[in-house]
Write a structure and sequence with these properties.
The chain is α+β, with helices and mostly antiparallel strands and 132 residues long. The strands form two sheets. It has a three-stranded mixed beta sheet, with no helix packed on it. Strand 3 and strand 4 form a beta hairpin. Helix 1 crosses helix 2, helix 1 crosses helix 3 and helix 2 packs across helix 3. It is globular, with a radius of gyration of 18 Å. The structure holds zinc ion (ZN) (2 copies). One zinc ion binds next to loops.
């Protein structure tokens, strides 16, 4: 009984985490999202939020930005899009781009790597930081 109940609770927690991430456009870290999810699930822990985000990213349900970073940001929007990052405060926003033809940039010599894809990220100063 208690096992069934905890499985149900786990999948409910994951659903809330996913819903809140998909509503946000801020590409939050696990800690950012924890502060928001807590309003709906007061007893959830930061570790649980983090584990669920990692799991959802592994399943391909969400995207994990900054692979390997401790303060990894997560993105609930799976459609192909690009990001711009503020060098001052670190905020990340989506950026609209016309479809790019990158066929000329496919590397001929990958040094033995099997290439799965590429990432294009812009950086600059966001409107908030430019004001101050
Ligand atoms: Zn900024
Ligand atoms: Zn995004």
């Amino acid at each position: 009984m208690s096992t069934n109940r905890s499985i149900r609770r786990n999948s409910q927690q994951r659903q809330v985490i996913l819903e809140e991430l998909q509503r946000l456009k801020s590409h939050p870290t696990a800690a950012d999202l924890y502060e928001i999810v807590r309003r709906r699930l007061p007893r959830i822990s930061l570790g649980t939020v983090y584990r669920n985000l990692e799991l959802l990213a592994e399943q391909g349900t969400i995207r994990r930005l900054d692979a390997g970073a401790v303060q990894a940001r997560f993105d609930g929007k799976l459609a192909l899009h690009h990001h711009i990052r503020c060098q001052s405060c670190g905020s990340v926003d989506d950026i609209e781009l016309p479809p790019l033809d990158l066929s000329g940039f496919i590397p001929q010599n990958t040094g033995g790597y099997e290439v799965y894809g590429h990432r294009l990220e812009f950086f600059g100063i966001c409107p908030q930081c430019r004001k101050s």
